[in-house]
Amino acid sequence: MASQDQIRLIQNSPAYWTATFDHPPVNIIGPETIGELDALISRIETDADVRVVVFTSANPDFYLAHYDMFVDKAVTQKMKPGKSGMHPWLDVLTRLSRVPAVTIAAIRGRARGAGSEFALACDIRFASREKAILGQFEVGLGAVPGGGPMARLPLLMGRGRALEVLLGADDFDGSLAERYGYVNRAVPDEHFEGFVDAFARRVAGFEKAGIVDTKAFVNDASLPPDSVFPPALQAFYASVARPETRARSTALAAKGLQTASDTELRLGHHVSTYSASA
Known about the structure:
Layout: E1 2-3, E2 7-13, E3 16-21, H1 31-46, E4 52-57, E5 62-64, H2 73-77, H3 88-98, E6 102-112, H4 114-121, E7 124-135, H5 149-157, H6 159-168, E8 172-173, H7 174-180, E9 185-187, H8 189-204, H9 208-222, H10 229-240, H11 243-254, H12 262-265, H13 267-277
Helix pairs in contact: 1-3, 5-6
């Protein structure tokens, strides 16, 4: 087993890896997370044997909460471009979608904002029916989502439902996420780990060449062009600099944002409560 600060990698076999997010208290994404993802994706891109990588979480309540809202935005904005030439967050997401292996987001707990964007960049999303929560809450703060869900969600669920997710800024449980196409399948929690493991082992038993070539053709037919992502990230930076957005973020911070609090557990509710009182 290889260990990093926020992502633990276990090679169940040469063909089947499990990467576990473990960044207490709520699995916040920050510059360090991006760096670790870059290193892991580089390994996947160059490993001759890996066929399947399952991304899971050590925290049953939080898969990936969202991006760190307290980190200096200038630090994030000035990060060195990744291999694609894009900002490293966009770089890891677009490369994740194209690695020569199957990537599976095994979602138990909350995946909002950048956490949702990470899940959307994976090839397949399985969710715990009872414990998964997904959402893009940024518009509830007055911000524009920065990691490209405006490009990915309409391809999965259609324009109307994508706008409902993005503009409603609310939480979607596993069952509704499955109905909308946000995830492939919602599995009863008692069977969730076994189902994901069985699927991953099944695919890992197939020949890599067939997996890689088939995925490449699906990518050609279904992935948005990389050019759509940088403008949205620039709009995100502009939107979070607005005084109104900062005020909403400050109000949520005072209520326990980025802690194991009711604010994080019910973030969709809390952004709407602020809106109603503003």
